[in-house]
Amino acid sequence: MAALAKRAIVIGIDGASMEIVRYMADQGATPNLKRLMDTGAWRPMIGVYPTLTPPGWTTISTGAWPGTHEVMDFNIRVRGRPLTETEWGVNTALSKSEYFWNTLERAGKTPILVKWEMSWPPTLTSGVQVEGTGPGVANHHQIAGYHLWVHGNWQPRPIGGGVDAEAVDPSTLQEGDAVDRIVLREADLSQWNNVPTSARPHLEAALTVQPLARGRSDLTAWGTEGAQPRTIYGLVYAQSESGYDRVRVCASRDGEQAIADLAVSEWSDWSQQGFTIGDHSLTGYVRFKLITLTPDADTFEVFMPQVWATEGYTFPAEVAGEIDEHVGPFLQNPARDALGLIDDETFFELLDVHHDCLADVAHHLCATRDWDVLFTEVHSFDYGNHFFMAQTDPRCGAPADVVARSREGMTRILASVDRWVGRLLELQDDETVVVVTADHGGTPDLAPPIAAADVLEQVGLLVTEPDSGEIDLSRSAAIPVGTIHVFVNLKGRDPGGIVEPEDFEHVEQQIIHALTTYVDPATGKQPFALAVTRENAEMLNLWGDLVGDVVWAVHPEFDACHGRHLPAVSLGIGGQHTVFIINGANVRSGVALQGQARSVDIAPTLAHMLGVPQPRDAEGRVIMEAIEG
Known about the structure:
This protein is an alpha+beta fold. Helix content is 21%, strand content 22%.
């Protein structure tokens, strides 16, 4: 097969809808994406259902629908186990379909993956991979999550609105203390050496870093036991009688062992520090920002983003050392989980660092080895979906300043993403095809989210324990699983099942009737867009025994920003049509495609352009309309 392109660059933007990309392009916020559209071909793309990360990126990476590859949620039913037990869906071992990068390897090509979502553990044999474990705190190689040490009159910076459930947003903390509260006390200088001169009495605080804190302990690469706290010291001092204005962060009570010496709004450089988790002696990078220090030190706020390991997160393993030497510290999570605690500006600063890091890694890897396809992705836009997007629409009822803050947040995130895209386009030549895509979109919140569990419990099909909220299998006929599935708790099929086989269809219809007739008392509207049997869910590209006996969806105004509303809706400045932009070698220029484009079509189209076989399980088509001639 003759190749139409020598190379390909596949750019993923998690959570980006075509609706908001077009809106931001018209606002002038995304010149690089606009240029790709103006000189290439594009279309709003139909993604997968549920509109979530695991099925979305796995479909893009395999060309197969969720019913075929079986990675259909963050939390997936475990065959033969009680319906209350699920397994984590960010795991390449769960996919029943061939990944396109493995297809490329079969064809003798070399793929490079830089933080490509849903690609861990690596399935590569000859290519190169950097990270790929999942969004935010859902990763394997974070030594410690962010730490925010606060004292005195510190206050968080919430934006209002609801907090998305972990089922659709596992990128942020769902439990545990969100900040590290400390007390500044006058320092006993007899215990200190080499202190800086201060016009006021020195103040001291113990800043303890807790490995494994603010992450998913069930995913860590080093186990969950034996995480040893590491205490460093903050010495607050005053350069003049005007008041306290600096903090020196030290590895011990010795001012010459300074890790950082900061004024308000300043960041330190990165510093390598050692940590211990069980039998593992680990090295990670730390840096600090003094966000707040009042002259009387009645408010103090120091921030440290995630501590990422210097090894273990690449394939081959030695690539991590190569990045460490030639690129610098790797930052996987730009403090998404601290949004609303830290000021927005600190998040935006880290976001640029994160995007620059990913671009630098891609440039280094592509400059130091032969390569054929670069896959690289950012999750940062979806971080904005889950924090800022909810209140971008005045109809949500938020005050005007909150709506303005929300819109500015979405604009600045996509502008930063666009600069990252611009860096990647430096790797494009006349023989390279570029594809930009996304897994799902995001929409604002106009009403409190509605879930099937709420309704099923009201009608008595689902029973939970009053104190714990856990499902009582012995009294529940219908069990919600994952994001959009409901299973009949069936005797003989499900351990602990209580529904007799002859009553299966009756309970199935009870579930559908309860959902489709439900009226939200706050709005007087019916939230559920559909509730269908597993057989009818094939029209949503869902099939097999991991699919619920009933599958449901809500109208977008009754959901969080994504997950449980259908992949073709629009609302406010957002929507669920995902992004498809193609540009470069033998691609038509300036074409708004008319034929439908779907997530399953990306891998087949790239395979055709590169002259390689289709992925073994691909179910999509080649988007011929985008190709010149």
